[in-house]
What we know:
eleven-stranded mixed β-sheet
Amino acid sequence: GLLVVLDEGIIAIFSNAPERVMMGMCVCRRFHRVLQHVKEIRIDIPKFVWVLDSKFGSQPTSNSRLLAKLFDQDGRTLNVGVKEPCSIALLLVQLAGHLDKIRVARLNGMSTYRKNELPRGYPSEMGLSRRRGNKGAEESRYVDMLERKGVEYREGTSWDTSLLLTFLDHSHELREIYLSRNAAIMSRQDFENFCLLLRRWLVRKSCAEPGPLPHALHRQRSVSNLQVLDLSDNRLGSASMSDFAQAIMDASKVQPLALTQLMLRGNKCGDAGAISLLPALELLPLLEILDLRLNRLRYETGSLILEHLSGCHNLKEVNGIPFSLPPGTPTVTLKHAELAEAAILDMLLATRWNMRVGEVEAVDLQTCHLDANGHETFLALFERTTDITSLSLSSQLPPHISSDCEDPGLSISEILSMPSLKHLRKLSIVSLRLGVAGAEALSKGISRLSLLEELDLSDNQIADGIVFITASLFSAKLYGIKSLTLSDNNLGCYEMSMIRLLLSEITASLTALDLSSNYLLDRDCFETLSSCFLKKSDHCSQPVTIIATALQRLNVSHQRSDSDYNSTSEPLETFPLSHFHPLCCDGNLSSLSLHGWNLDDIALLGLRCARSSGGSVGGDQSGAARGVYEDLDIHCEAGDFDKVGRMLSQEMRVRHLRITGDALPTSKSCLFLPGLAVALLRPQSCPLLTLHLNGIQLGAAGYAMLLKSLEEEERLCVQHSDVDTGRCSSSSSTSPSSSCTAVGYSLKELNLSNTCIDKRCAKVVAEIIQRFSFLEELILTDNKFGCVGAFDILQAAK
Length: 798
């Protein structure tokens, strides 16, 4: 669809509209011509967009008139999203007679909108203030205004919920309601009122043309409109869940219900709440998707849920578990799996359901709160598989909650001993908090994986337990590992010395190593690391350093400081890049992530590219290809920017460049921005695809210099471009300016967060962005360019 952002914060997405209508969208007021091509209109209202005068008389604006036209369209699906209650208040005033045109209402997370985005909490022009308790004078005046318009006001325990209930009550033709993450504004009494409204609303007869319904209901005289209901993450509890079930049962006595999707995840209802819901589920014959995950349900409750759904012949998924796997399904993904999900999976595997897990090649399992029954179920899953080559096990428990499993490593060890995993090549075990004991148990399972090539043990708090992992890999002679990820495991200098033995053995095959987010702030750590990859040869008269690794990707970003994990020496603040000098110059290292570090000699990054480009002869591009950095993530001090700019303007080629830093020198002699302009205009053989400059304080002067540098480089490229291929040559001279369409930008992702973009330089930034015709992602957070600046930038990004 097409994304159109209108003034004052209204976003409309026109699905299935041809691209040619986009050009005149913001300048042509004849929207009816555009809407002829549209099947669905999606509108997001992030903030209040109208103003009421002091007498509570509505004042139409361009936005309200436009929305009135959009709301007045027949035969189109109107999908409306509201982010905060004030917009509901003004919708009820301005468009009360049009709310029955809405088919999809997205009211998620209304309790989380930021009050500081609104002047004094609520718009001062409305004369309304935030209220918790009895109705105040301001709200009485608002209610009187609604009554004059014929709108019945539904009173809740707060202003927010009153507006929410009133809006739902007057949106007669809704087919889908998304009302998740509203616990902060919905009390128990509010939810009781919602259930009363839901009971009436479910039996309301449709006045409009009904949407597509299953064939089984076409013969019924009256069918409810509602097909999708999402009440996830509202902390309803068991009592409110019982009220909700009663509302469904009461409504089903009047007419058949057409609910196909019911999402009740994360509501803390417990077993009692889920069991009270079971009779209501039997009255939903068209149900396709049911989600009751993250409610701490027991194994037995999961079995009861599936038994009561036996009459729902259209079921496709329960609690994230698919009811069938078509032939050839390569991957099974189970998220937020608890005891109830284990029971459901157990019954599906043991009964007639079409679960062809024998053909599965990869399993992605996210678990939490599992006991012995749950682990036995997942063991049964792996027993039914035949040949798995990729396995991912993770937990989504919050940091302050520990797993119910006493020894997750022991269970994983049992899984890894399954015959179907003997050909496993990729193993990812993330956030299971194995600790030392779990790592010891896990090491027994890993030793059986003779074909293992990729191992990810991120966020497991292994610490000293890394000794067991490395010893197991070493003793089993698993020297074919190509990728090793040990990030966020509390590794310090001592643990690094233990890893050295393994790294020395797998260095010939290792291509990717991730040690980020640990406690490696000691010089000895990096001397140990470099000694694994660089060997001294004694066969020559003088010792020669030999590169003994195929390493291509190295990540040591975000190291933390803690006296418990460092030696007596002072923590390093500067990464010793000089230790890895041969790798930077002559190795295959194409991805280097050093986020959060200063570099002792940043110029070393350019030597590899210089030697590679100088080594290509007779059109042979192999040397140039080896000299390209696929991914480079570095931090620059004030004195480093000129060095990076000089490297970019000469031989250094980067496909994905991420730079952080502080204030950027913007004097005329600054080389960084001219070098960046050269990099942005590299030919298609090695284009710059990703650029992150977040945190660098460019400001108006910096962006003006960047625009000037781009214009100058464009003139040079146009002058020396090849007529047949349209590519830029490497020589330099001056020529008159030419259109930037004659040169090739390939940038797809641009991050300019916190770069001091204000109203003054927004137009300059827009002119820069306009050049990147292949741009897919643009990030501009933490800048103060205002609505006008946002509109200019958005127009340029189109």
